[in-house]
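Figure 3 (text version): structure tokens given as input.
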């Protein structure tokens, strides 16, 4: 079991850094785009993410008001009780695609290695 985990991690690292796949490139682009959206909203609004219909002032958030900039990118979507932004959606989709791609590639490598194919 430990050997399989080590092989899995080595293939995962190789799939990202040595031979990037189309899925990993798209995943990294989605992730970076989401980070950019969130960064723009935070930097453009005094280093705090504005929140629509949400929580009050916290360390990382402030309520939306008339001076809020980049309204498209603020936390305003309620998903399962959490208020998230469009950037959060891009980040989570990028992360999911990235993990799914290298897990699939590692599993294929392990199966081919066991069966000599």
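Below: residues designed for each position.
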């Amino acid at each position: 079991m430990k050997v399989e985990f080590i092989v899995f991690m080595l293939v995962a690292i190789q799939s990202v850094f040595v031979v990037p796949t189309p899925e990993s490139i798209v995943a990294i682009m989605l992730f970076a785009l989401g980070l950019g959206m969130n960064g723009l909203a935070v930097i453009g609004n005094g280093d705090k993410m504005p929140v629509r219909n949400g929580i009050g002032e916290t360390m990382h958030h402030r309520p939306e008001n008339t001076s809020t900039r980049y309204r498209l990118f603020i936390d305003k979507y309620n998903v399962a009780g959490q208020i998230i932004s469009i950037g959060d959606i891009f980040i989570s989709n990028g992360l999911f695609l990235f993990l799914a791609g290298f897990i699939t590639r590692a599993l294929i490598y392990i199966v081919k290695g066991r069966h000599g194919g």
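The beta strands are 49-51, 61-63, 77-79, 82-84.
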